[in-house]
Every structure is written in C-alpha cells, then in structure tokens.
Write a structure and sequence with these properties.
Elements: H1 3-11, H2 16-19, E1 24-28, H3 32-42, E2 47-51, H4 54-64, E3 68-72, H5 80-90, E4 95-100, H6 105-113, E5 119-122, H7 127-145
Parallel strand pairs: 1-2, 1-3, 3-4, 4-5
Helix pairs in contact: 4-5
Length: 160
C-alpha cells in the first residue's frame, strides 16, 4: 500500500504533492532572454522545461513528456513546425502554441490545419494574455484526456 493511500485512508485527504500534480510546459526559443522571461511568467504553476533549440527540446520531451509546448517558429537548424511534427509523432495529444515574430502566416496556417498547433501568438505578446492562453491550453489537454481538472489546480495558475 502506498504512503499516499495510507494517508488518505487515515485522514481523508491526499498528500499535497499528489493534489498539486503539475502538467509540464516545454518552452523553446533560441533567444535565452525569451526562454527565461517565459519561464518566470509560468514559474510556480507548471513544471518548466527550457530549451534553446529543437534538438534540445526533443531530448527534454523524450525524457520528461510535458503536456504543453510553447515554441518559437524561427530557430536555426530546426523550426518550430519541424519540432512539432516530431513531437506529435511521439505524443499526438500534446497541446502546442507557436510564437512567431514574423508575418509567416503560411506556416501558421499549415501548422493549425495539420493539427500541429492549437493556437499561435505573435511577438511581442502581452504576458497576461499569453498566461491565459497557456492556462486554456492546460484545460484543453485535461478535457481532451478525460482527466479530472480539479486534480490539477494549483495556486496562481488554475484556480485555488
């Protein structure tokens, strides 16, 4: 019998680590300042994984299996679209948001139409709007997966 189950049977409450189960958020951008800024925006609400290239992001994705991806489109060696093609082959249920600083509308349309991207954001973005969008992405993942959203509420991000 696990320690969590013993505690539940004894107290009727689940341990805080289990109550505050977190979805992972992989942030990918070749600009370090952007990755750090976005990491701070979502700190405390999600388990944050930071990558500065597509290859680094793939390695982190394979190791940690985050459920949410926030990626830049324009990066050297591997674009955000190429990255998401590979990630979706591993786990098609991942919810991805693409960030682009260019008027690369054809790429964005392709990404949305092929189901690689759920939403996109243009640079510069409003941090509060982006925060709300990522929270909506988390809720979408939970709903699509048939998971109990109440299990995933944590302070400052998805309710009480």
């Amino acid at each position: 019998m696990s320690a969590g189950w013993k505690e539940f049977r004894g107290t009727g409450q689940v341990a805080s680590e289990e109550q505050l189960a977190k979805l992972g958020l992989l942030i990918v951008d070749d600009e370090c300042e952007i990755v750090e800024s976005l990491g701070e925006t979502f700190r405390g609400g999600f388990d944050i994984l930071r990558a500065h290239s597509g290859q680094e992001a793939l390695a982190l994705f394979r190791e940690h299996a985050p459920k949410l991806i926030l990626t830049d489109q324009r990066m050297p060696e591997m674009t955000g679209l190429e990255l998401l093609r590979e990630i979706k082959q591993i786990n098609p249920a991942v919810i991805a948001i693409m960030v682009t600083g260019y008027s690369d509308i054809d790429v964005v349309i392709e990404a949305i139409n092929t189901g690689l991207v759920w939403k996109y954001v243009t640079k510069p973005w409003d941090h509060e709007e982006l925060r709300r969008l990522v929270i909506a992405a988390a809720r979408k993942y939970l709903q699509d997966s048939g998971m109990d959203e109440a299990r995933y509420r944590f302070p400052g991000v998805m309710g009480c």
